[in-house]
Amino acid sequence: MIKNLGANGNYKYANRGMTLESDIEITNNFYLINDKAVIYKKPTPITISKVNYPSRLEAVIKEGYFRTPSTTDYNGVYRGKYIDFEAKETKSHTSFPLNNIHSHQINHLKMIHKHGGIGFLIVRFTTLNKTYLLQYEKFEEFLKQNTRKSIPLSYFDEVGYIIKDKYNPRVDYLSIIDKIYFGGKL
Predict the structure, then answer these.
(1) Going along 59-138, which residue ranges are E strands?
(2) In this predicted model, what pLDDT tens digit does every residue of 55-84 receive, in sequence order?
(3) Picking from 29-43, 66-80, 140-154, which range would have the lowest pLDDT averaged per residue?
(4) What does the domain layout of the chain look like in residue ranges?
(5) How far apart are CA 180 and CA 185, in angstroms?
(6) Which class does domain 18-43+69-182 fall in?
(7) Where would I find the H helices in the chain?
(8) Is the model's pLDDT at 116 over the cut of 80?
């Protein structure tokens, strides 16, 4: 087994959600190629402060910092509507820890909703092999009515939408968006 250790011997936690993100990237590429939607992963706003230039082709970034907190992971346009969402994974069998989503991301989704955009979370319970779409409205409702530090799986089962695994598109969240916002069939 390969351990994910940093230089200091501690576990590295970067790229924990890369399986879901990879699946969403493949899905978004499918949507783009098939002229269904234009949705991209947002770049993380980083300022580079130190670069090593042994040669022009071998430049290496040595130091950088986050300019501002990033908002959510993905945004784009589908059927004339702005879409914005955050994608998260958890290994928990029972709940999604709320410390996985930051207050500035919640505020961003709130503003998207306020201005008529479509905001949501995609949450994958990796050990259960279940992926859910949770509308921002239901997420906000949970936050207002609870003091819990996590959203129980049962809440996702009650008000969320399961995203079934498929070959292409891999994480077909737009079929759920069709049902919720455009009166399509699920």
Answers:
(1) 60-66, 74-78, 81-90, 95-97, 118-125, 130-135
(2) 777 777 767 655 555 678 899 999 999 999
(3) 66-80
(4) 18-43+69-182
(5) 9
(6) alpha beta
(7) 18-33, 103-114, 136-145, 153-159, 173-182
(8) yes
